[in-house]
Specification:
It is built from eleven helices and no strands. The chain is mainly alpha-helical.
C-alpha cells in the first residue's frame, strides 16, 4: 500500500505534468494564431507575416546593408560573384552574423529579389501605370519591372538562378517574393478584395512573367517576344472581372 507521502508526491507530479502540458498547448495555440494572422494578411495583400522576434532598428539597418552589398556584388559579377565571406566583409559584419540573417547564398539572393521588388513597388505607387483597362495596367507594370531588371542583367540572372535552385528550406523567402509580386499586380488592377478566380489569374501571370524572364536571360527570347507574352497573359485579368463573368 502506498504511504501518504508517496500519494502526495504522486499528486504533485501529476499536477506538474498537467501544468507543463497546458503550457505547451498554450504556446502551440499562440504560434498557430500568429501563422494564421500572417497568412490572412498576406492573402489580403496588406502585410507580410511578422517575424517571431522583430528586428531592432540597428538590426534592420544591418540587414539592409547586407542586401545592398549582395545586390552590388551580383550586379558586378552575377551569381558566382556572391560569396558569403565577401558579403560579410563588405557589409562589415561577422560571417557568423551574416549566416544568422541568411543561412545560405540562396536565402540571401532570394531575399535580395524581394527587396528589389519592394523598392520597385514603391516607385510604381509614386507613378502608377496609365492603362485604361486592368490588363493594360498590369502589362505596363510588369514590363516596367522587366526593364528595371534588364538594366542589371547580372543581378537579375543571379536572383532568378537563386529562385530556381531554392529548396523547401527557402520557402519563406520564396513566398515573400511571390506575395510582393502579387501585391504589385493587384495594385495595378486596382483591386483590394480579389476573387479566387482573379487570384488564380494573377498566379498564372506571375508564372508567365517569371518564365519570360528566364527565357530572356538565357537568350532564347527577345524583348519584343517577352512583351507579346506578357500582354497576352494579362488578358486573363479582363476575363476575370465581374462584368466579363456576367456576360458569359
Amino acid at each position: 500500500m502506498p504511504t501518504e507521502a508517496n500519494r502526495n508526491e504522486a499528486a504533485r507530479a501529476a499536477e506538474a505534468d498537467t501544468r507543463a502540458a497546458a503550457g505547451k498547448a498554450g504556446r502551440a495555440a499562440a504560434i498557430g494564431r500568429t501563422v494564421t494572422a500572417g497568412r490572412a494578411a498576406a492573402e489580403a495583400g496588406t502585410a507580410r507575416p511578422a517575424p517571431a522576434s522583430p528586428l531592432t532598428e540597428r538590426q534592420e539597418a544591418r540587414r539592409r546593408r547586407i542586401l545592398r552589398t549582395c545586390a552590388r556584388l551580383a550586379g558586378r559579377g552575377g551569381f558566382d560573384a556572391v560569396q558569403m565571406r565577401e558579403v560579410a566583409e563588405s557589409s562589415q559584419v561577422a560571417l557568423g552574423t551574416l549566416y544568422r540573417y541568411f543561412p545560405s547564398k540562396i536565402h540571401l539572393l532570394v531575399a535580395t529579389m524581394q527587396d528589389q521588388l519592394e523598392t520597385l513597388h514603391g516607385t510604381l505607387r509614386k507613378k502608377p501605370p496609365a492603362g485604361e483597362t486592368p490588363a493594360e495596367r498590369v502589362a505596363e507594370t510588369l514590363m516596367r519591372a522587366f526593364r528595371a531588371l534588364q538594366r542589371e542583367p547580372h543581378l537579375a540572372d543571379a536572383m532568378v538562378r537563386a529562385l530556381t535552385f531554392a529548396d523547401r528550406s527557402v520557402s519563406p523567402e520564396v513566398d515573400q517574393v511571390s506575395r510582393q509580386t502579387t501585391m504589385i499586380i493587384l495594385d495595378a488592377m486596382e483591386l483590394t478584395d480579389p476573387t479566387p478566380e482573379q487570384l488564380s489569374a494573377v498566379r498564372v501571370i506571375e508564372h508567365t512573367w517569371h518564365s519570360a524572364l528566364i527565357t530572356w536571360l538565357s537568350g532564347r527570347a527577345s524583348i519584343a517576344q517577352v512583351r507579346v507574352d506578357i500582354e497576352t497573359v494579362c488578358r486573363l485579368v479582363d476575363l476575370t472581372t465581374p462584368e466579363s463573368a456576367d456576360s458569359r
